[in-house]
UniProtKB/TrEMBL annotation, chains A, B:
<dbReference type="InterPro" id="IPR050226">
    <property type="entry name" value="NagZ_Beta-hexosaminidase"/>
</dbReference>
<dbReference type="GO" id="GO:0004563">
    <property type="term" value="F:beta-N-acetylhexosaminidase activity"/>
</dbReference>
<dbReference type="GO" id="GO:0005975">
    <property type="term" value="P:carbohydrate metabolic process"/>
</dbReference>
<feature type="domain" description="Glycoside hydrolase family 3 N-terminal">
    <location>
        <begin position="22"/>
        <end position="346"/>
    </location>
</feature>
<comment type="similarity">
    <text>Belongs to the glycosyl hydrolase 3 family.</text>
</comment>
<dbReference type="InterPro" id="IPR036962">
    <property type="entry name" value="Glyco_hydro_3_N_sf"/>
</dbReference>
<keyword id="KW-0378">Hydrolase</keyword>
<dbReference type="GO" id="GO:0009254">
    <property type="term" value="P:peptidoglycan turnover"/>
</dbReference>
<dbReference type="InterPro" id="IPR036881">
    <property type="entry name" value="Glyco_hydro_3_C_sf"/>
</dbReference>
<dbReference type="InterPro" id="IPR001764">
    <property type="entry name" value="Glyco_hydro_3_N"/>
</dbReference>
<keyword id="KW-0326">Glycosidase</keyword>
<dbReference type="InterPro" id="IPR019800">
    <property type="entry name" value="Glyco_hydro_3_AS"/>
</dbReference>
<dbReference type="InterPro" id="IPR017853">
    <property type="entry name" value="GH"/>
</dbReference>
<dbReference type="Pfam" id="PF00933">
    <property type="entry name" value="Glyco_hydro_3"/>
</dbReference>
<protein>
    <recommendedName>
        <fullName>beta-N-acetylhexosaminidase</fullName>
        <ecNumber>3.2.1.52</ecNumber>
    </recommendedName>
</protein>
Amino acid sequence: MITDTTQHPADSIENLIQSMSLREKIGQTVQLGLNSRFCNEETLERHLEEFPVGSVFCGGEIITSAEGKSAALREKLARAQRASKYPLLVAGDLESGAGQAVADKTRFPMLLSLAACRDEKMAYEYGKYTALEGREAGFNWTFAPVVDVQKNWLNPIVTNRGLGDDPQRVAALAGAIIEGMQDHGFAACAKHFPGDGVDFRDQHLITSVNSLTEEEWWEVHGGVFQSVIDRGVRTIMPGHIALPWCDSFRSSSGRPRPATLSEPILTQLLRERMGFEGVLVTDALIMAGFVGFASRSERLLQAFAAGNDVMLWPENDYYSLMERAIEEGRVSTERLEASVRRILTLKQQLGLLDAADAAEQFAPIEEDSEVRRQAVDLSARVADESITLVRNRENLLPLNSDRARSVLLHSAIPEQADSRYIDLLAETLEARGLEVTRHKNGNCLDVNKMEQEGKHWDAYLVVYSLQIHQMKNAVRPVGELGEVQWAQQYAETMKPITISLNTAYLTFDNPYLDTLVNAYSPCPTVIDALVRALFGELPFDGQSPVDLETIPERTGFLG
Amino acid sequence: MITDTTQHPADSIENLIQSMSLREKIGQTVQLGLNSRFCNEETLERHLEEFPVGSVFCGGEIITSAEGKSAALREKLARAQRASKYPLLVAGDLESGAGQAVADKTRFPMLLSLAACRDEKMAYEYGKYTALEGREAGFNWTFAPVVDVQKNWLNPIVTNRGLGDDPQRVAALAGAIIEGMQDHGFAACAKHFPGDGVDFRDQHLITSVNSLTEEEWWEVHGGVFQSVIDRGVRTIMPGHIALPWCDSFRSSSGRPRPATLSEPILTQLLRERMGFEGVLVTDALIMAGFVGFASRSERLLQAFAAGNDVMLWPENDYYSLMERAIEEGRVSTERLEASVRRILTLKQQLGLLDAADAAEQFAPIEEDSEVRRQAVDLSARVADESITLVRNRENLLPLNSDRARSVLLHSAIPEQADSRYIDLLAETLEARGLEVTRHKNGNCLDVNKMEQEGKHWDAYLVVYSLQIHQMKNAVRPVGELGEVQWAQQYAETMKPITISLNTAYLTFDNPYLDTLVNAYSPCPTVIDALVRALFGELPFDGQSPVDLETIPERTGFLG
């Protein structure tokens, strides 16, 4: 890494651009997925020599190879920085704290939990500690927060990754998170422009559509994005989402052009009309929402031409494609340099072009630091204030610690899904001295059979943990989970206390739940808060971040 | 079985009623699920002595114990008839031919295939051969046809079990099926009153709601039911479906009262206003759509009081409950006898009260009978005329037999689901000399990787087989199937030919499919017809029985 401040002073971005070869400039617009192939330092060095990049992405794979320890990850990233001629932006999906990416950092409850607290100060801290812990692990950029607005309860992207359905609340909380991040040396990224949450479909699986009218859009997503732009968000991620009022172009298959490929959406609307001057980074280019247009090489050039600065994980032929496009005049040098300038400006803002700061970023950190203590405390506070008592019609809650000594814990969770938070819930209950009987999914008649056999528990907890935001289209209790919904109603003597560990919308599938707690997040601090709330040791302070009043009985009705 | 015509002549139903004990009258209103517990003749005899019944239901379990052979099943049913003092109605879910219930009878394509043929004569035969083959196996009553109207594409009940979304077409085809059945010694059953297909939810899992206004309802479900009543349908099955315009009562949990419990819906609307004089048989009483009201015993009495004649699988205490209710005057003898009268009238219509007919029903049948030949021929004709070419924008179809020699068969089917029809498709292609490579679900990048490795096939078939109408809420490509939708779009060189073996609505999740064949039914004759149609040996004669023109992009949108 070049850190000589006389050669690259923070105020001489133009000199830096002029010193770059064409390939180096193109490389600035590339974000490399730092997967296991690059765990070997030599391989990475060789790769960067031929294919220089401006940024790297750390996803699950390399973090796994780092065994979840941020010290090891930081070491790898330091090597990557050394292997790169220019300092690298290091990005990750740190949507709910650095602990989402690195095991020894703090996991925060999902954004929907934060939204249930309705506390902007807490949102600022959420951003702050994500940044401070993220930087300790070597990150300087997070693709967060999700600022989408859940206008459609079937939308599979926003779910508990987002801040709910109210545009004003989303804007206020997202703005605070962004400031918390950016005040502490991080680049935030508002996603997914022009706003997810309208379509029932998933951008991973298809080009989705934000079908709001121009007027509606400005009131919802437009308003949110304008607000975070005005509050200085440094980067925005366009999604593979169409916005027909702004760009009505359709391919021969009738596919509407997604934002990632749309000059009207990215340049005319977002840059020129809304005044966004920061970095635009595409959502992943392998997603099905992107791949329906033209040939792969044509798509790549179109995406760049549309206004993106950083391409998320293009294949290696992107370099030669861009070189040829510049040569042939299909992409101008000015356009390329404009993107490089925005990327270098971001690096400058983050102190990456300044030797002293770059060094500081990799300074040793203490194991049990004050930052860590504060982050853990914040995670607990968000959890404590988020647990929402949606219904308590039978006054079953809170449970009485003296009388409720045995629990039937009926989990509704897809067979192949990670059940660690259900396990943690069981352990937490057992640690209180409760006798816990566990039952997973099963047959619709199971609980009724148990009752007929004379079995009884003091409390019957039914805990739903859906597989959401995993390209599963599964924001409702589908498959085995449907039988749990059946079974809990078929209980004769036991009254179910229903708990959701993610979706806020269980009442749309079962409007007749008498007792429902929305906990929003599979997260250790949430499990802890949930149990205390169930036993009356913590007030149910959360307020639903989505409207649950009107059951949308005609969902899917064709009129 | 008592078959002495002097004692029970067909014209002396009143004498028969008067000769019955109270318990025998109550028994007439009970339908017993003939599960494996009753495969032992002695057990059944002892049971019927204490708990006499009017009808039995043969579902999957006892048919399995009969090893799928109708001769063995008939033998068991003959024993049941002998064990019963009064002749039994024998019911089953023969929705798509007797082959749906008994392996050596003929399986017809699902009703949605029949609807794609738009041929009332064929619908009549569909009913006729279901009856003739069903009677050979010992049945005299089928809970079919489904006459619901698919007004909601997310509705999980109607799907390919129903006749589509057009009320006039549903009425015309359903009426023909019913006449075909009833002209040939069978009782048909129109289900599910007051009409499923409006809600996105499943009556198995929750009380669902037909939220049409009174005017809308008469145009849709009301019109269909009135039409089949006027054409003489002998039985109707109320579903656990509310109809707020007709009955606005709600339980303390806010649960709307389903038809199965509603006197306004069953007696005032269906009997008095619509003039239905036949037998009302409840949908299964264990379904969650039913179990939310009052205590189990209260519910049972309420369901009877509402107007039902036959209770589907009540537990044994139903007898003592009813005896006490009669004693206490909560149910009148007149009301009970009215139901018994309707049930005996049905038996009389079916010739069950007449010794000669009852004997004929169990007459030996030939292995390769004319009936069987006609049924097989009908199944093939329905299949041949139903295959629907929804899109052929790239003119990929029909395939050229000389040039298309290798096929990548990519199946989209839940891991645990029955894949026998995908296997059959592969075998049928191989039997034509094609080289078939199979790929199941997998990763979104799989096909793209194969292409990058230089692999190529002359045709790329993507075959969706969803798990629908199985209480799974899964009428869309959820779970692993989402990745297939992704993978097929990410193919670079191969153009997918998409085939659906059940749902007609794949274009709602993926509106940009260029090539789509809707085959509607996992059924041997459909697989055969599908392959011939793909290779141009059969015209694509099917017409979509549901409207696919307007993609409902705002499904789930909360406004």
